[in-house]
């Protein structure tokens, strides 16, 4: 799977009908990236439908809707979402340039403030004063060493000359692991699945986003509901991984998201929990880790955002999982890639944009005096859709008895984006209120959800599971296992 760049802009996959006008303003083809990555996920669904025996349906992508889904797909009606950003998160001048602090997680905020010697209730102005005298790379390294998250603004050339940039240039967009063979699924696996002595019937589906008549009456793995009955264990947070598992849920997968006991991101709950059951586990305790292992034994696809060393410490390395669960498809994503000196570094979309030269390129392109990032967190969202595509393609191969794991990263996606220039499509996008949307009820109240950006002919994207809070469900699969 690749994103095709033609004449410094993205091209949609073959046999994909692209509609919609306008583009997000950027130094790079962000709208093209949105359309291409969403199309990649949609085409993976179409290929799976073909494998299930109904032919490969055509795929259509709306550029404007794809761009809008790269922002927020859900708009509350009569209530407001909490702020997404922590009060001291953001870009600051330092002694020799600019640095960004990512402090949304309490422990990342605490780490940055400890380095700066500031109290927990400090105001933003005081943080700016403390940062002003620090050399950027020294501060970045010190915050990262303290288990915090920070990134100096580099130029594109500086990044390409950096050891991590050089390592990423040699990585594929999707890194596929070695194949292993397992028994293929047979016809008897279509409606029920047997795991040891437990037979699992597929639950019924009623659409939460589409009229009931438009949705298949039962969740059996067929072209109209190609991921029905597929269990996806989701150990991802923030945006990229949750985007991937939300997409899988809309095509029938049973997604169980697991968060630590203290993890909260209220500004994104309504956005990222659609279609999922969300539970909490403390995997640092023997009981929590034991429960996670039970869930892994019942999963078909495992999607996680853990660094390799973190899984190793839990005894859940790729090698260990392949030995215990040879039929399990595992898809991993991280911030800075899987090789090079930063392979274990924590990171987020906004930090990667600073590191790799995107924020600097935006500053120059628009003539600004401070870092100017992309108009949306496009690295997160694009990597999320590419992760969904990889998971679906891996599952399709799993049906025929081949298992391959996949790895992706935000920084590697950024490398493809930085090969482009501004979109060749003129004009801005229509305002969100002018785009097609549908009423939706969440645990917090009603709102409007954007219509799907990709349409796979004859395959509705819908779910019966409303968006709910983290920890709102038990850590178990349907049927109690």
Automatic annotation (TrEMBL):
Q: What PANTHER family does the record tag this protein with?
A: BLR3030 PROTEIN (PTHR48228:SF4), SUCCINYL-COA--D-CITRAMALATE COA-TRANSFERASE (PTHR48228)
Q: Which InterPro entries match?
A: CoA-transferase_III, CoA-Trfase_fam_III, CoA-Trfase_III_dom_1_sf
Q: What is the lineage of its organism?
A: Bacteria, Bacillati, Actinomycetota, Actinomycetes, Micrococcales
Protein known as = Acyl-CoA transferase
Gene3D superfamilies for the chain: Crotonobetainyl-coa:carnitine coa-transferase, domain 1
Pfam families, per database record: CoA_transf_3
User: Which keywords belong to this entry?
Assistant: Transferase
**Superkingdom of the source?**
Bacteria
What organism does the UniProt record list as the source? Arthrobacter wenxiniae
Task: Please provide, alphabetically and separated by semicolons, the GO molecular function terms listed in this UniProt record.
Answer: transferase activity
